[in-house]
Amino acid sequence: MARAERILIVGGGIGGLTLATALRRHGFAPELIELNPVWRPVGAGMAMQPNGLRVLHALGLGAAVERAGTVIRHWEYCDQRGAVLAETDLEALWGDVGPFIGITRAELQRVSIAASADVPIRLGTWITSLGFADNGVSVALSDGSTATYDLVVGADGIWSTVRQLAVDPTRPVYGGQMVWRSLAPIRPRGLRTLQFLLGDGCFFGLCPVGDAETYGFGGVAGPRTIDPMEGRLSRLRQRFSRFGDVVQQFLGALERDDQVHCSPVHWVARERWHVGRVVLIGDAAHASLPMMGQGGSLAVEDAYVLAESLRSAETVHGALADYVERRCRRVRWVRQQSQIAADSLWLPVPIRNAAFRACGDEMMRQRFRPLVTVP
Predict the structure, then answer these.
(1) pLDDT, position 89
(2) Position 239 in a domain
(3) What are the φ and ψ backbone dihedral angles of 129, each rounded to 5 degrees?
(4) SS3 203
(5) pLDDT one-digit tens code per residue, 247-300
(6) Is the pLDDT of residue 241 over 80?
(7) What is the mean pLDDT of residues 53-81?
(8) Domain-located, residue 286
């Protein structure tokens, strides 16, 4: 086991909380800080895919996640009106790895917080400076405290302070896509599948979550824009007014502008995950385009592998080298395939739809097959 008596995890998202749980399971004593003063889920819903759920089961969280979410058995690509172009049987794709779960961010956060209840956590706290000391990392925090840690883990998302201070100051790159996300208390047309309805330079996705809710996400290719809160719901309805009735039912179930979150899609261009005793996991390390929906699953895999590497290696430096070696190829595959998937959506509509009809299912199987193996 690597000698790391003091470990600081920066960020209380799914990656940071999973890492806290995994480290405790392996006999380490991590601390965690989170910028927000109260627990507040970021985003609306998500898919915890079988490769991520496999990790959560190994840590004892999987059953709770399954209870809090809903099992999704098929992934469909449809045309703008809702006619199916390609359908993938997710149970056949993933085999015995586990189910594909749609879950709200709030419920996933609740399960993750409960699992890490024995980890010291400070909310409303962030790093103000970070420096490299002999065999450690010196850290100053917003509450005025200072300490030296054997390892600092940046799990603080795409705009990671840890990455900018210690690993790579390069800012994330705009991915050419604006996205509107929301939760509605409805299952439009009794929705039971994950659906992507594909328009001309745009799409609208629908994912069942929880007991009777649906996570909706609409993407539009183009320059980065600002969509003010006032009137946002009306503009969203207008923007996707030509989409099929499953989308119209979803949008009709929304009532307020503040139910819709709008943001540009960014990705981290450079792959540099650690310097000295500072390491990154999740979006802080490798945020990519979201077209495979793997962000959350990769983050929990990162956390699990990093904890395993620290347990099995003799030194922190050896553990970090092992972590990067084990994760790099898998993450790079997802990044590349997500870009390919995004590019395919912006092809001319007749060409794209014909391609999905001819080989959409096989493309999906090839894209996800490498993730079936244990990370």
Answers:
(1) 98
(2) no
(3) -155, 160
(4) strand
(5) 999 999 999 999 999 999 999 988 889 999 999 999 999 999 999 999 999 999
(6) yes
(7) 97
(8) yes
Domain with residue 279: its CATH number is: 3.50.50.60
- Cα–Cα distance measured from residue 59 to residue 334, given in angstroms and rounded to the nearest whole number: 24
Average pLDDT over residues 156-171: 95
- How many CB atoms within 10 Å of residue 253? 18
Q: Which two tokens stand for residue 325?
A: 């070696």
| Model pLDDT for residues 311-358, shown as the tens digit of each residue | 999 999 999 999 999 999 999 999 999 999 999 878 999 999 999 999
Are residues 112 and 121 in contact, defined by beta-carbon separation less than 8 angstroms? no
Rounded Cα distance, 65 and 103, in Å: 8
CA atoms of 299 and 32, how far apart (whole Å): 16
Q: Which regions of the chain does DSSP assign to beta strands (E)?
A: 7-10, 30-34, 45-48, 70-72, 74-79, 84-89, 100-104, 121-123, 127-133, 136-141, 146-149, 151-154, 173-184, 194-198, 202-209, 213-221, 260-267, 274-275, 278-280
| pLDDT for position 138 | 96
Structural domain of 156: 7-72+97-172+267-345
The whole-number pLDDT of residue 282 equals 97
State the pairing for strand pair 213-221/30-34: unpaired
Q: List, in order, residues 6 or more apart from 156 with CB less than 8 Å away.
A: 10, 11, 13, 16, 35, 162, 163, 284
Q: Provide the whole-model pTM.
A: 0.96
How many domains does the chain fold into?
Answer: 1
Question: Do the domain assignments include residue 251?
Answer: no
Per-residue model confidence (pLDDT) at position 40: 87
Answer whether residue 133 shows pLDDT above 90.
no
Q: Which residues pair with 203 in a beta bridge?
A: 198, 219
d(CA 334, CA 154): 21
Closest CA to 51 of 303, 281, 286: 303
In a domain, 221, yes or no: no
Q: Are 120 and 248 in contact (CB under 8 A)?
A: no
Whole-angstrom Cα distance, residue 202 to residue 223? 13
SS (H, E, C) 323-340: HHHHHHHHHHHHHHHHHH
Q: Does the pLDDT value for residue 64 go beyond 90?
A: yes
What is the C-alpha separation between 42 and 13, in angstroms, rounded?
A: 8
